[in-house]
Amino acid sequence: MSPSVHHTGSEWVVEAYGCDPVRLAAPSSLRALFDAIVNELSLHPVGDALWHQFPSPGGITGLLMLAESHLTVHTFPEHASVCVNLFCCTPRAAWDWEARLATLLGAQTVRVRELAREYAHVPAAVEAYR
After folding, report:
1. Taking the CB of residue 90, how many other CB atoms lie within 10 A of it?
2. Burial class of 41 by CB neighbour count within 10 A (0 to 12, 13 to 18, 19+)
């Protein structure tokens, strides 16, 4: 008998290209991005976001721990690109990454990969990694 799989979460891995380099280097733009994601998806931060700004022309890395898991961002102004990762261990509605990143960061192209997070113990899968 195989165990049932319980999909209880999702993880989004997002890359956006053709972004506005000025916004990618501005902490206020990334705080606005985090605020939009948190508010529009009804997420629950467990503390303040942590930010690290690299020397010019480098970008910014941000991390926000959530009751649902985490939200991270890393910007590359020198390449006009950004990488975002959102992991929610509880179900969430889809977010319009393409439209929102276009509005907030000027993204021209957005690639979104959604990964199902399944938490049931599957012995065959565990054995494959030993």
Report:
1. 12
2. middle
| 10-residue mean pLDDT series, the chain (130 residues) | 60 97 97 98 96 94 96 98 94 91 98 84 56
* Active-site annotation holds for 69: yes
- Given the residues 69, 70, 79, 83, the one annotated as active site: 69
Q: Which domains does the chain have, with CATH numbers?
A: 7-128 (3.60.90.10)
The burial class, CB within 10 Å (0-12 / 13-18 / 19+), for 15 is: middle
User: Which of these is catalytic: 70, 79, 83, 89?
Assistant: 89
Q: Is residue 44 packed enough to be buried (19+ CB in 10 Å), middle (13-18) or exposed (0-12)?
A: exposed
Q: Are 11 and 93 in contact (CB under 8 A)?
A: no
- Of the residues 10, 19, 74, 81, only one is catalytic, namely 74
Residues 127/122/89/81 CA torsion (nearest 10 deg) = 50
Query: Is 69 strand, coil or helix?
Result: strand
44 included as an active-site residue: no
83 has catalytic annotation: no
